[in-house]
Design brief:
mainly beta; single chain; five-stranded parallel β-sheet
């Protein structure tokens, strides 16, 4: 899938458990946001040229993000908020303006 030009979210996951794979999210306001105990699986996606953050992981969300590329976002590549519990494995998070990974919570990063 190719998701682009969004004015709010590329993808918003709110308390759900979807699998998202092999997609590109680019040239929009934000990439992907996980809220309210979302525990989805994201793999082999590319998120780039985002005006805000590539991925925002809010309190109590527990996504598994694997083998993704997140780059050239104008704020953070990944913003992990307090009480978020993501697992991030084998991802390339590079060339984001303020910080590649902004950490406020506990998480596994491999």
């Amino acid at each position: 899938s190719d998701i682009f030009g969004n004015t709010v979210f590329g993808i918003a996951v709110n308390g759900a458990f979807p699998s998202i794979s092999n997609c590109k999210i680019h040239d929009g306001q934000s990439g992907i946001t996980f809220e309210n105990e979302s525990a989805c699986f994201v793999s082999e996606c590319e998120i780039y040229n985002i005006e805000d953050c590539g991925a925002v992981i809010c309190a109590d969300a527990k996504p598994s993000i694997n083998k993704c590329k997140i780059h050239n976002c104008k704020v953070y590549g990944v913003w992990i908020k307090k009480r978020a519990k993501p697992s991030i494995n084998g991802c390339e998070v590079t060339c984001n303006t303020l910080e590649d990974i902004k950490k406020e919570g506990l998480f596994n990063l491999f």
